[in-house]
Design brief:
2 copies of one chain form a homodimer. By secondary structure, chain A is α+β, with helices and mostly antiparallel strands. The first copy, chain A, has helices at about 5-15, 20-30, 85-90, 110-120, 120-150, 150-170, 185-190, 195-205, 220-230, 240-249, and strands at about 30-35, 40-45, 50-60, 60-65, 70-80, 95-100, 105-110, 175-180, 210-215, 215-220. Mean pLDDT of chain A is about 95; it is low at about 240-249. Chains A and B meet through strand 5, helix 3, helix 4, helix 5 and helix 10 of A and strand 5, helix 3, helix 4, helix 5 and helix 10 of B. Chain A binds a DNA duplex through helix 8.
Chain lengths: ~250, ~250
DNA sequence: CGCAGATTTGAATGCAATCAACACTGGTGG
DNA sequence: CCACCAGTGTTGATTGCATTCAAATCTGCG
């Protein structure tokens, strides 16, 4: 039988690259038990050396870092199917925390088991590697925004990206994006103050680019929102590497 | 004979993880010809689908992205031994450009050859994967800075990081950091204006934390500079993953 | 020498932070 | 049941860090 954890992981991996049926089967086989994490609890602690990788089965999480002065920077939002601490598999440690923004179900995958698989299936290793690379492409895009885009563009960009990713795993439709994240958290992601996030979201709503109620965002003018956010989804796109080049021949 | 390209690559890989002599030999064997790139030229173009990976043999480079409005965000600086477009090996495309900040010597490593090696040596694949992960840890750290640190801390942090990385490959010593990068480029890296970078560097010099002449920076008070930049090098540290865990037993 | 790029400094402007207050919500306990 | 409270969202007023504009050196180089 296919569990919920299996479903979300398959949905996610499909957006990254092609896996053989055998590879998928082997990967699903090593998914461990799921556990519940309540809101605002850490799924992974900063500075730890985990011996397993976490799969978000349901709920919203984020990767973040706390500063000595009490500030917080959120580096990414994580949605079902994500493996937010996959990097720890290759590096052995984490330099950041993963926190639950909503109640989450998470499953663990032991490093040991995963290592056997990556050694047996180089292609699986490549797809996982690619996952971490898309992840860092997202981080770079955020860096670009925080460094060189104003509050409005930054906010619009985040909404576009989030909608795009949610749609890819079948969790957003009809221009409606479920976004169960407080303005405090959006502020820590965008490098803004909560007050300014509030004003900026209001501006986007006043401009009729979005509708924002009950942590659900409706894209009223998707094209205009993308323009406002200078959003170009190419960095999120699935690419099959060699496969793609082979196709061209 | 060991070429310059071999030397810098070995020096770099040593900072990332352990490789067997056999693995190193195989890797060095597939390093292609070196070519010269003059200052301000692109080593890799944005949006391209390269079929080889670039090794910086000498010189300074950066990864960057241009915005529609003419702005630029630099995502990372790259020094000899770096493989700035290694991500393209796993994803097949680039969503950013790599530019030469000084005249550079670069060598190419064909994707095809590299793929054979990673399939033959899973450990080599793991080390390369880890390299891209350290790279993204750096990007996250920059994101934290641009999002939540003021100009002084951001600048100090960059100098600490750069000194740390240069020292690791033997290109900085005695508290002297060669930093052949203009203030325009520092500004595009830190998300500041050039004017403000200038003032901030002057401030750090006035405070006697650094000395800054001829694109060479002397760390006058290394401890204080780290404090000012909230710099904690753990995200740059070499970690041997399983090895480390095994050691503990 | 002349010129382009880089650095430096001053003055004015502006975007976003901070401070402050209030409304609204859901949950808790008296 | 209602009072209370913490967390969240909203709005106005003020402040400040960093930008922009402007102009003056300084440097290397053809």
């Amino acid at each position: 039988v296919l569990l919920k954890a299996d479903h979300v992981l398959i949905a996610k991996l499909k957006t990254i690259g092609q896996l053989a049926a055998e590879e998928i089967r082997a990967l699903l086989a090593i998914i461990g038990k799921t556990r519940q994490v309540s809101r605002h609890q850490d799924i992974v602690k900063d500075g730890s050396s985990p011996d397993s990788v976490t799969l978000i089965v349901s709920g919203f999480a984020c990767r973040y870092k706390l500063l000595p002065d009490g500030g917080r920077q959120i580096h990414s939002f994580h949605i079902p199917g994500d493996l937010p601490d996959l990097p720890s598999f290759a590096t052995g440690f984490t330099d950041h925390a993963i926190g639950a923004l909503t109640p989450c179900e998470v499953a663990v995958i032991a490093h040991d088991e995963l290592r056997k698989l990556t050694e047996a299936f180089p292609n699986l290793a490549l797809v996982l590697w690619r996952d971490t690379l898309i992840d860092s492409a997202i981080t770079r895009e955020w860096l670009t925004g925080v460094g060189r885009r104003d509050a409005r563009a930054r906010t619009a960009h985040l909404l576009c990206e989030q909608y795009y990713r949610m749609r890819a795993i079948g969790m957003a439709d009809d221009n409606v994006l479920p976004f169960p994240v407080t303005q405090v958290e959006i502020a820590d992601a965008l490098g803004l103050s909560t007050v300014h996030v509030n004003r900026t979201m209001k501006t986007l709503a006043r401009e009729k680019l979005i509708n924002y109620h009950n942590h659900s965002i409706t894209m009223l003018q998707w094209e205009k929102l993308q323009t406002a956010g200078q959003f170009d989804p190419c960095y999120l796109l699935r690419s099959d590497g060699n496969l793609r080049r082979a196709d061209r021949k």
